């Protein structure tokens, strides 16, 4: 079957400005080997990438990391985004940004802030993030954001060791003046896979959380929008990971590699294109890496003959590789996958671990 033509443009560009971060979350989505500061794209190189993204049709830019504020030239990068006409969203842990730096970002044209919290209670939040005092600094930063007039989204990654405080996280979002709360269950790649036994929730915890979100969406309609990213390990069918490979999102790593998904750099056998060497439009439309799992032509059975194949696109390639060793396999999150029993086994193993199991924290091991 010929490769599927690319969608006209990705909806969003995720720009990972750096892997440096003062926190050490045990579910961090950064790769196990982190990019050195000396390999990072310069502000002007990011500016060229943003211009190319805008010309391609991208509207939304997510400035991420690591912690993007670890870049001293963050305001210059935001200014490039504004000049390119992109709507810019800063995804930050908030622990190193003070009023003066926030003001410089507002002046540079920043449009939105997404602030992560590790829990609703300071002691637990600081333990999960691996940095004492971080939670208190986040609360101070949230107050600065709302005072500046920027819209604020709160992001909470949830798991077995903080899920019981989901109602308190919803209250926290309201108290901080967030217009949106993203409740995202851990996705088990990279560092999170190493901590799976400590993080995986029970079925009962998951069901309680899902009910809490449903009730809050109803009672807070018009006050708080709640996005809910469900976990795969209790699922019968997978999610359309990143909206499908090479369909909705383009990720650029700190060192300038273009990826269809932030976890894809760990997949073997790929030569992901370099934005310093290839224009973004060619990367999106022509590169072998973006075409490899685009559409349905690559699919094995049971996906090939399945009526959901253009809804979930066969699930997550990184999860398929992590659990089966084959990135082209059906995502084991699907009950029709011959590997689905691996997830049941993982849940049983995790439930045997204590509820407060110690974490293996993210380390800054540079490659
Ligand atoms: S998940 Fe935690 S450690 Fe990883 S980049 Fe975000 S704040 Fe830093
Ligand atoms: S068989 Fe493939 S396409 Fe069908 S539901 Fe499972 S993962 Fe999705």
**SSE order in H/E notation?**
EHEHEHEHHEHEHHHEEEHHHH
Helix/strand/pairing category:
alpha/beta
Q: Helical proportion?
A: 25-40%
Strand content: 5-15%
Physical arrangement of strands within the biggest beta sheet: 7-6-5-4-3-2-1-8-9
Low-confidence stretches: none
Bound molecules: iron/sulfur cluster
Radius of gyration: 20 Å
- Which of globular, elongated, flat, extended, rod-shaped describes the shape? globular
Describe the sheet with the most strands. 9 strands, mixed
The overall strand count is: 9
Span of the ends, CA to CA:
38 Å
The average pLDDT score comes to 95
**Helical stretch tally:** 13
Oligomer category? single chain
Question: Describe it for me?
Answer:
- Belongs to the radical SAM superfamily. PqqE family.
- InterPro entries: 4Fe4S-binding_SPASM_dom (IPR023885), Aldolase_TIM (IPR013785), Elp3/MiaA/NifB-like_rSAM (IPR006638), MoaA_NifB_PqqE_Fe-S-bd_CS (IPR000385), PQQ_synth_PqqE_bac (IPR011843), PqqE-like (IPR017200), Radical_SAM_PqqE_MftC-like (IPR050377), rSAM (IPR007197).
- Keywords: 4Fe-4S, Iron, Iron-sulfur, Metal-binding, Oxidoreductase, PQQ biosynthesis, S-adenosyl-L-methionine.
- This is PqqA peptide cyclase.
- The protein is of the alpha/beta class.
- The chain has helices spanning 43-56, 74-84, 99-108, 122-129, 134-148, 166-176, 190-194, 196-199, 203-219, 280-286, 288-291, 317-324, 341-351, and strands spanning 12-16, 60-64, 87-92, 112-117, 152-158, 180-185, 225-229, 249-252, 258-259.
- It is globular, with a radius of gyration of 20 Å.
- The protein starts with 11 loop residues before the first strand and ends in a 16-residue tail after the last helix.
- One iron/sulfur cluster binds at residues 21, 23-25, 28, 30, 65-67, 93, 116, 362.
- One iron/sulfur cluster binds next to loops.
């Amino acid at each position: 079957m010929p490769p599927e033509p690319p969608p006209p443009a990705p909806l969003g560009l995720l720009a990972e400005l750096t892997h440096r971060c003062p926190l050490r979350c045990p579910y961090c989505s950064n790769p196990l080997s982190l990019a050195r500061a000396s390999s990072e794209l310069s502000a002007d190189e990011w500016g060229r990438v943003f211009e190319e993204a805008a010309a391609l049709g991208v509207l939304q830019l997510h400035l991420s990391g690591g912690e993007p504020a670890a870049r001293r030239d963050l305001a210059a990068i935001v200014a490039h985004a504004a000049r390119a006409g992109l709507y810019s969203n800063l995804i930050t842990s908030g622990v190193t940004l003070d009023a003066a730096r926030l003001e410089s970002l507002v002046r540079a044209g920043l449009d939105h802030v997404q602030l992560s919290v590790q829990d609703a209670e300071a002691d637990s939040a600081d333990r999960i993030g691996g940095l004492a005092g971080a939670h208190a600094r986040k609360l101070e930063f949230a107050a600065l954001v709302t005072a500046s007039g920027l819209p604020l989204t709160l992001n909470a990654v949830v798991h077995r060791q903080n899920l019981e405080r989901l109602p308190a996280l919803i209250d926290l979002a309201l108290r901080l003046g967030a217009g949106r709360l993203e409740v995202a269950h851990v996705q088990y790649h990279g560092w999170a896979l190493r901590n799976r036994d400590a993080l995986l929730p029970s079925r009962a915890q998951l069901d309680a959380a899902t009910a809490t979100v449903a009730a809050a969406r109803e009672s807070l309609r018009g006050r708080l929008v709640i996005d809910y990213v469900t976990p795969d390990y209790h699922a019968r069918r997978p999610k359309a990971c990143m909206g499908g490979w090479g369909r909705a999102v383009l990720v650029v790593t700190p060192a300038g590699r273009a990826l269809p998904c932030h976890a894809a750099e760990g997949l073997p056998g790929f030569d992901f294109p370099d934005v310093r060497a290839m224009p973004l439009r060619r990367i999106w439309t022509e590169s072998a890496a973006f075409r490899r799992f685009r559409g349905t032509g690559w699919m094995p059975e049971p996906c090939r003959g399945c009526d959901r194949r253009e809804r979930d696109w066969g699930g997550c390639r990184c999860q398929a590789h992590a659990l089966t060793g084959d990135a082209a396999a059906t995502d084991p999150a699907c009950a029709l996958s011959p590997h689905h029993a691996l997830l049941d086994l993982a849940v049983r193993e995790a439930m045997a671990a204590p509820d407060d199991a110690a974490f293996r924290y993210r380390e800054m091991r540079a490659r």
